Amino acid sequence: MKNAVWLALVALLCACGSTPQGVPIRIIIPRGSSFAVATDSLKHAGLVSSPFFFRLYARFKKEDRNIKPGTYLLKRETPWSDIVSALNGGHGLVNTVTIPEGFALTQIVPLLSEALKVPVDSVNAAVRDSAMLARVGASAGTLEGFVFPDTYAFPVGTTARAAVLEMIKRFEREWKPEWNQQLDSVGLDRNKAVTLASIIEKEARRPEERPVIAAVYLNRIKAGMLLQADPTVQFALGRHTPRVFFKDLEVDSPYNTYKYPGLPPGPIASPGGPSLAAALHPAKVDYLYFVAAPDGHHEFRKTLSEHEEAKKEVRARSP
Hints:
The model has no long low-confidence stretch (mean pLDDT 88). The protein is of the alpha+beta class and 319 residues long. The protein is built from 14 helices and six strands. The protein is elongated, with a radius of gyration of 26 Å.
């Protein structure tokens, strides 16, 4: 009996007195998890130093049987009493959503709607919010390209507007201050730079090719040539197609870079940091053409005749 009392007192002492600090840590408690399994997750994340005493404390408080599953955000040094309270009351629960690089709003909106458990119309309204458009300098009527690809954890009850605002703040953190000076060097404003980066994101399969692809498109703009970027045609069509056919090139849209000169009015997807960097720091090459090979790399060429030969070689190697 004395041992039990002593252990309980130790557990109570461990549960009190600390102050939460640092960046919140994401903890996932799967549905059906026992308190012991939850404790192991907390120990692994560095939130609980002594699983034995933590379990003893929860048992003493009679709060080890009704934990709620889900994803939580908790800080290190959070008192055990607060952790146990969170697990039992669902406090600190968050909804997570991952936005991959290269996703367009047509893909992002339903993901965000599902994660936040809000209507799709609410998310569509948020990505067209005039104040946020002005904040980032988006000029095509939506936040396409400025909703930064990342994994987000939103507290339960987060509105669509609050979530989208956090996502464009993430874009602003990624945008390096020195890039503003670099815009003049490449002859672009920020909206156009993000637009170019979004095309690079859709085209590139190998990281090292991003600056070269950027150079090709900038070289074509300087030469007064059409960009002829297949991903912009797919965006204009409103659907992804494995291949762009000649009939697709007839779509009448300012995003069809086979018909309209220069960059399209706005981004076609959400570019990641490397593609943004590539758009602002293109390779010093004089290529004007490229064609994708079956393994994902591109063959770059300077002249149309060289490009036609490269296309023949690529077709010959295709299965």
